[in-house]
Amino acid sequence: MSYFQNVNKIMYEGPKSRNALAFKYYNPERMINGQRMEELMRFSVAYWHTFNADGGDPFGAGTMRRPWNHLSGMDQAKARVEAAFELFEKLDVPFFAFHDVDIAPEGNTLKESFDNTDVIVNMIKDYMKTSKTKLLWNTANLFTNPRYVHGAATSCNADVFAYSAAKVKKGLEVGKELGAENYVFWGGREGYDTLLNTNMKLEQDNLARFFHMAVDYAKEIGFDAQFLIEPKPKEPTKHQYDFDVATGLAFLQKYGLSDYFKFNIEANHATLAGHTFEHELCVARINGMLGSVDANQGDKLIGWDTDEFPTDLYATTLAMYEIMKNGGLGRGGLNFDSKVRRASFDPEDLFHAHIAGMDSFAIGALVANKLLEERVFESFIDERYESFTKGIGLDIVNGNVNFRTLEAHALQLGEIELQSGREERLKSLLNQYLLEVITEPATV
To answer: Exposed/middle/buried for 368, CB within 10 Å: 0-12, 13-18, 19+?
Structure first.
């Protein structure tokens, strides 16, 4: 059966198209800096928001109208797989991602949960034999069930730690079986609410032990996926141990894990941490730790994770600027960890949302590529830091000075001449390049 009867395969029709079910800027065959746009973007559909989210919120019941809503349990899980691969084919996306409980319901016992997972994994595996869509990453949900009320790998209860390890062990096996490019660790409840009842050192030590065991087991079974940590500052716990990239990097370096992990950076998490999306991408990039991206955006008027589909062209441009300076995302991708709004409840809205996100990042990539080709910002930055390419500045960079020699230099100085940062001029240039790309003739 068809779950999306009113939708045909989404095609590129160019910016003048008024077809709501067509790409306006995302042309998978268009070349950007020697790569097909599809290869550069590596778009991925998030299983949980697309096929599991019901539109409920703390103030109201679910609103989503889905062709599989009349089913339950394993029957519903199987229908979702069928619907998923229909959507993947019609969007022509190369990747998807899931948590374990997204694809199969939990059973009354851990063994029953694993048995349910095996049934659905076998079904997914069969679909993947004839589909171009591959698994970008999978992960274990270690935050929804009440057993994780005190955390998972950081729980005060050793049995919960063991249960969580068993779930991740299974996840690594599933990832290998389905050929996952990455495996993500998102510590949804790896943090605390109050120090009055928390042994922070033990919790962080245990989290590191957990990660080392995961690394060891992946090696044991020959699962060579890239391991990713996804930072998030708050919600649900007040103080999460993976607050942002810098905090996560310090943790990995302290516990000897930085050679095994990179970061999966989510735009909405960045803003919740008080950063911009491009800031988090840049911190990861300059430290060689940029692995993958959860592509979404938040509402700056709301203080929680709204997971909206990305449509902010400034954000997508500056994100692609960092990604392209990184040389791409390697084994990572742009995963739409995004959900349609509660009032966008028709099945077709899933396609409208993904089209909007894919077009927005396509525009961002085109603008970023043009900025980089013409060295618009690099030229200014080179000039701004020119004093460190000669004289005393070069000596500083090369480590040929100390406080005594710097003092001697400073005592000989007259009035120091400073250069304007030209922030407004640079933002104007960004506007100019963005508008040029949007209005340029369509490329077929």
So the answer is: buried
| pLDDT score recorded for residue 442 | 65
Report phi then psi at 362, rounded to 5. Answer: -65, -45
Q: What is the mean pLDDT of residues 195-200?
A: 98
Q: What are phi and psi of 106, to 5 degrees?
A: -70, 145
pLDDT, one tens digit per residue, over 42-60 is 999 999 999 999 999 989 9
- Record the pTM: 0.96
Residue length, the chain?
444
The Cα–Cα gap between 424 and 104 comes to 51
Query: CA-to-CA distance for 203 and 185, rounded, in angstroms?
Result: 16
Strands 43-46 and 182-185: unpaired
List active site positions: 99, 102
Residues 6+ apart with CB under 8 A from 154: 187, 189, 190, 191, 192, 203, 204, 206, 207, 241
On whether the CB atoms of residues 273 and 304 are closer than 8 A, the answer is: no
